[in-house]
Amino acid sequence: MAGNDWVNSYLEAILDVGPGLDDAKSSSSLLLRERGRFSPTRYFVEEVITRYDETDLHRSWVRAAATARSAEERNTRLENMCWRIWNLARKKKQLEGEEAQRTARRRDERERGRREATEDMSEDLSEGESRDTVGDISAHNSDSTRGGRMRRINSTDVMENWAAHQKEKKFYIVLISLHGLIRGENMELGRDSDTGGQVKYVVELARALGSMPGVYRVDLLTRQVSAPDVDWSYGEPTEMLNPVNSENPQEELGESTGAYIVRIPFGPKDKYIPKELLWPHIPEFVDGALNHIIQLSKALGEQIGGGEPVWPVAIHGHYADAGDSAALLSGALNVPMLFTGHSLGRDKLEQLLKQGRQSREEINTTYKIMRRIEAEELSLDASEIVITSTRQEIDSQWRLYDGFDPILERKLRARIKRGVSCHGRFMPRTVVIPPGMEFHHIIPPADGDADGEGERNDDSTANPDLPIWSEIMRFFTNPRKPMILALARADPKKNITTLVKAFGECRPLRDLSNLTLIMGNRDDIDEMSSTNASVLLSILKLIDRYDLYGHVAYPKHHKQSDVPDIYRLAAKTKGVFINPAFIEPFGLTLIEAAAHGLPIVATKNGGPVDIHRALDNGLLVDPHDQQSIADALLNLVSDKHLWARCRQNGLKNIHLFSWPEHCKTYLSRITSCKPRQPQWRRTAAEIDSSGSDSPGDSLRDIQDISLNLKLSLDGEKIEGAGSLDNALDNDAAEGKVKEENAVLTMSKGVLEGCLKAGATEKEENTGAGKFPALRKRKHVFVIAVDCDTTSEFSEIVEKVIETVSKEKDAGPIGFILSTAYPISEIQSLLVSGGLSPSQFDGFICSSGGELYYPASSSEDSPSGLPFVVDLDYRSHTEYRWGGDGLRKTLVRWVASFNEKKGDGQVAADESGTTKHCYAFIVKDPAVIPPVKELRKMMRIQALRCNVVYSQNGTRLKVIPVLASRSQALRYLYVRWGLDLSNIVTFVGELGDTDYEGLLGGVHKTVILKGVGTSARKLHANRNFPLEHVLPVDNPNVVQSEGSSDKDIRASLVKLRILKG
Question: Where are the transmembrane segments (predicted)?
């Protein structure tokens, strides 16, 4: 069998058969380019696989046979090629079949989940809500569109009136955009695939918000990059974004402190890495960002808050990585979250799977796509509002996610408006807010100037020798011809190669116009990324094939400040702007072009549809239809009346996309969110001590009168526990009813008899409980080892305490237990190990669902146990806790699962269930569905929670969505000032399904070798492998040689916690 070089050479001969192959209109070409590394050979193979044509194959065979040196060689080539194509076609068909089955299952699951959610809520449905009414739909759509058109901006008087009402507010807003290179001036857009339109959008959004009435401070958080291959400015910790339309920034800002880029160091310190490699470092960013926000909130409090911290009114994540970060920060601070996806992982995954060239596993390896999708699902769980640029993004892309259902969203929205219970179900509000545009740099063409020559007569306009103009026009034989302008990086998704083909093969278009391709900046093609270099080389080959020299410009360099001049040059020549991308999430360049008087030709897939509807200034085309692109361009450059009408429409309607209008809508949405922020019930002793180091300076120095920490063993009766019995009376099988009723007796107390009859939670703790001085600790050791047995866990706890405590130079230290055990089991473990609760500063229980502190006395405790629960932590993690609605769904699932797999496979764990943790005992972990399936089931029914398997899968915990063991540590920082960098966490080689959250961040970690390895089966069926999220070569993470005293000490010496 001949090698691949024989196959490729033969396939290139096939490509040369004729234009018939180039006219193919296959959607799969999009997916081929999506992957990158475009080549004619691969393109033709995909064409043959998609629509096999024997005639073309025969013609190609004849052509190749004529060039072959012998019959034997010819037959070998033909056999090799036919086998290759057949094998690829078979693989594609197999992958398409698997994806079709997966899609069908997903559709069934969604319908079932929607039906169950609707049944749960059907008891109190009003007559109008029992069906999808026109009123519900119109109310839902009124946020973004009205009458099929986008809302027009209000008059200046209305805007000024709105500004007057906002003036007294002093908002602090946090935006997050992690990947790419972000700076306020001279943005290097197109430098790489991560530095594109999103970078420009977030910078301009931050700048515009900073100038709005009622906004005091805006922070755009991103990654600090101090690498030799990038400019030094990306390593600066902060950068002020000056208002663009004022020579005096302070005068423009007034009382506001304005907008800033704040760069947080995380990830490799001296390397600029792509976004796919940032995932393991997200916790480190979250900890750094949390520190910045807390410090700034305190500073703002001194300025405008009367001494009380001014917390962010919202945290807004942009793209999946920032959404994941924003969700964790939102949970740690208990403030509202907003999310903008920009582009979505599920949509990209579907496109790649349709191509059929890669399996799901291969795609995941390349793009870390499943980690990205999980981040987007978490963003849906945590967000109050999801902001999109277009309606198409909601209807066609967000609908792919487990956590979003447009139909269920409308039902929930209607119930909220009517004041009807949603039974613990939540769905983020989707709002369409088109991106704004800054118009200060645009020289508006004079009214009635159809040819663009009447623009403002200033020096820059009159001078025909602007550097960028000269740089472009030097390419052209006749620079006076209308210019077709494309402004996009050399990315396969941007479809520039199809544009060049359309231009090259349409002789009338070539005769009437020139083509300008602004494809980012480059010094040497060999130094570009492989994907971008491949696209650029393909374009250069096409220019050579069609002999387009003198007709096409492709300058190597341009500044961001040159872009307006490029648009103006195209407008002066009566040119056209084109965006031929396969899918365009929005299309900001289309708005920029329209503002400069350029008609547009744009893809019909995505945001350009909404832009065209608003501006009515051009034509939409199928990006796969080469002839359609050529015809649209030819129509606009040849028909002067059509060109003038489109130009005028664009100029007339462009005010629809101003930044002030965008920000006004944006701020009105923020103010519609229910205000949330850290709020503590401060004690008298805490107030008295606030004048010293800081509020919460020392927990042991605070006399707790239980306004903030009320004595409770979490054994209070779960509210509404009996209300579900009646709701389940109509179940068909009597045995199933008994099963569910049995489960409904979940935990009336953590310990039997811990609450006296009729006793309620005490409002005052008469015991003088004193709590751990976390802020004053030099180091806090968190024991979060997930062991196979309780005896092994107790042994490790004793070893850690003994090893650290006997060090004379260890300084003031503290210990925290962090486990999946409830507080009752922790008490038993302490007693069996001869340990006292007073030896610990805190107890993170139930996988992070509850937080306790040791009490100095148990005499007055209703339970008789020396612990107090942190009720502030409960309220902090209360967000979107499903309560009875969630419990009812779990009850139904347990009964259904036991019916299928056998009675008793899953049973309620009464001793482990608390107010914020529903616990279950699993008889056989081998038959239980993986965590991802349970999370999926909950999300489909709009129930937001965190599902954790513990103790090798024999326990199941369901806790609030933003509660976890790692988040509990961040809460301790927010509440008590525990320095996260002073924490040392002990974990095993593996652990519970929340294991990954314990490793990242600024704290130090000791991995005890040989501990927790039996939990490997818990991680065997994950959405994404642990390797995609665990940091590699992290100096804060060490692995011990074992779990002995000597091994533990050696690890702490490596971390420089102890002296050697």
Answer: none
C-alpha to C-alpha distance for 285 and 1001, rounded to whole angstroms: 7
- E strands, 953-1003, are 955-960, 983-988
Q: How far apart are CA 111 and CA 1047, in angstroms?
A: 54
Closest residue by Cα to residue 243 from 441, 387, 434: 441
- Please tell me the number of Cα atoms within 13 Å of 126 on its side-chain side: 15
CATH superfamily of 471-655: Glycogen Phosphorylase B; (3.40.50.2000)
* Rounded distance between C-alpha atoms, residue 81 and residue 72, angstroms: 14
Res. 979 pLDDT band, cuts 50 70 90: very high
Q: Which DSSP state fits 70?
A: -
Domain ranges of the chain: 163-243+254-344+371-432, 471-655, 774-881+963-1055
Question: Which residues fall within 8 angstroms of residue 739, CB to CB, at 6 or more apart?
Answer: 894, 895, 898, 899, 903
Burial string for 373-397 (b: 16+ CB within 10 Å, else e) reads bbbbbbbbbbbbbbbbbbbbbbeeb
Query: What average pLDDT is seen over the chain?
Result: 79
Q: Among residues 812, 866, 813, which one has the least CA distance to residue 843?
A: 866
CB atoms within 10 A of CB 154: 14
Place of tokens 């999926």: 936
**CA–CA separation, 478 and 577 (whole Å):** 19
- How far is it, in rounded angstroms, from Cα 835 to Cα 830? 5
- What's 217's DSSP letter? E
pLDDT at 751 over 60: no
Residues 6+ apart with CB under 8 A from 320: 341, 344, 345, 372, 373, 375, 376, 379
In angstroms, rounded to a whole number, what is the distance separating the alpha carbons of residues 629 and 632?
A: 5
Alpha carbon dihedral 799, 802, 805, 809, in 10-degree steps, equals: -80
1011 alpha carbon, distance to own chain's centre: 33
How far CA 650 is from CA of 515, 599, 631, 644, in Å, comes to: 22, 7, 21, 10
**Token pair of 32, please?**
């081929």
| 737, pLDDT greater than 60 | no
Label each residue of 449-484 as H, E or C.
CCCCCCCCCCHHHHCCCCHHHHHHHCCCCCCCCCEE
Q: Could you tell me the pLDDT band of residue 724, with boundaries at 50, 70 and 90?
A: very low
Close Cβ partners of 304 (under 8 Å, ≥ 6 residues apart): 170, 216, 310
DSSP string, 374-406: HHHHHHHHH-SEEEES-HHIIIIIGGGSTT--H
CATH of domain 163-243+254-344+371-432: 3.40.50.2000
Measure the CA–CA gap between 107 and 400, rounded to whole angstroms: 10
**pLDDT tens, 270-290?**
899 999 999 999 999 999 999
* DSSP 3-state of 909: coil
Sign of CA pseudo-dihedral 842, 846, 847, 848: negative
Q: How far is CA 532 from CA 191, 231, 501, 526, 550, in A?
A: 10, 21, 18, 10, 24
Nearest to 202 by CA among 567, 588, 603: 588
pLDDT tens digit string along 526-570?
A: 888 888 888 999 999 999 999 999 999 999 999 888 999 999 999
Which residues touch 508 (CB under 8 Å, ≥6 apart)? 634, 638
Bridge pairing between strands 813-818 and 918-922? unpaired
Domain 774-881+963-1055 in CATH 3.40.50.1000? The answer is yes
Could you report how far apart the first and last alpha carbons of the chain are, in Å?
A: 63
Tens of pLDDT along 560-612?
Answer: 889 999 999 999 999 999 999 988 877 889 999 999 999 999 999 888 988 99
Residue-level pLDDT at 393: 86
Structure tokens at 33: 């380019």
**pLDDT exceeds cutoff 60 at 146:** no
Residue 832 · residue 789 · CB < 8 Å: no
Q: What is the pTM of this model?
A: 0.77
